[in-house]
Amino acid sequence: MVLPDLSNWDETRTALHQSMQTLRSTRLLGVSPMPNELEYSAIPIASGATTGPLSFGGELRLDFTRTAVIYERDGTETFAIGLQGYNQTSLFDAVFDAFGRVGHRLDPNRKKITETTPFQPDVAQAKVYAEVMWRMFGTLARLKARMYGPQTPIALWPHGFDLSTIWFVEGMDERHDTHINFGFSPGTPDVGQPYFYFYAWPVPDGLDRQLPSLVEWHTEWGTPGGVIRYERFARESDPETVVADALVEAYRTASGLLKATAG
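Below the sequence we write its predicted C-alpha cells.
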C-alpha cells in the first residue's frame, strides 16, 4: 500500500517536534541512566510516542492522533493538554503545572525550552504522520530482524524527531565502538523531505561506491552517509519491503567493510 503524501505539513511537524521536549524532560526525571543515553529518547508507539513507565508512576505520551500530551496512571487518563493554543514554552509549563496538581512536584531542565511561536497543528495531518511513522518503525524492525549482533532498540529522539537504531560490530558504546546507525527522519532542511538514512562509523573506504540503487551519498553531515528520499519509495505498492531490502543490502555491505577493517 502506497504511503500518504507528506508535503505542506511544516506547521504540524513543528508542533509535534517541539512538543517532544515535554517527554524528554519527563523521562530524564523518571528513568535511570541507560546505555548510549537512551534516557534522552522516547519510545515510539502507534499513536505517537511515550516515556514508558516512570519511576514516580504512570507514563507521559504525545498522542499525534489527538495532538495532545497525555499523562496516564494506573490505566486512567490523569490529564490531557491539547497542543492548539500553546507554544513550546507555554506547553512545557502547562504540563509540569499539571504534574504538580496531581502530586508530582518535578523540577525539569528548561535549557532547551525556548520557542514561543504558537503551534498550529492540523489534526488530520498529524494522524497521517502517526500512520507513516509507525509504518517506518515497522520497516526498521524488519531490518533489525535481519541484522546479527549487538543492537539498540528503535528510539524516537526528541532533538531530531527521528527514529533510530544502532548496530555494532562488537561492544555497545556509540562513542567508542564501531557501528552503523539506521534511521528515519520526517525531514530536515538539507534534504527537504522525509527520508531514511544510515551512516557507518568510522566511515569505511569504498562504502560510497557500493550503495544500493535507491541510496544517494550525503556528504553534508559530520559523518557522511546514505539517504533514501521519501519520493523514491512512497508511491511503491509495497514501500516497506522496497526500503527494508535496500537497507539490508546497505547493512551487509557496510558491516562487511567494517568487519574487514576491524579484523
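The chain has two domains: 10-101, 123-262.
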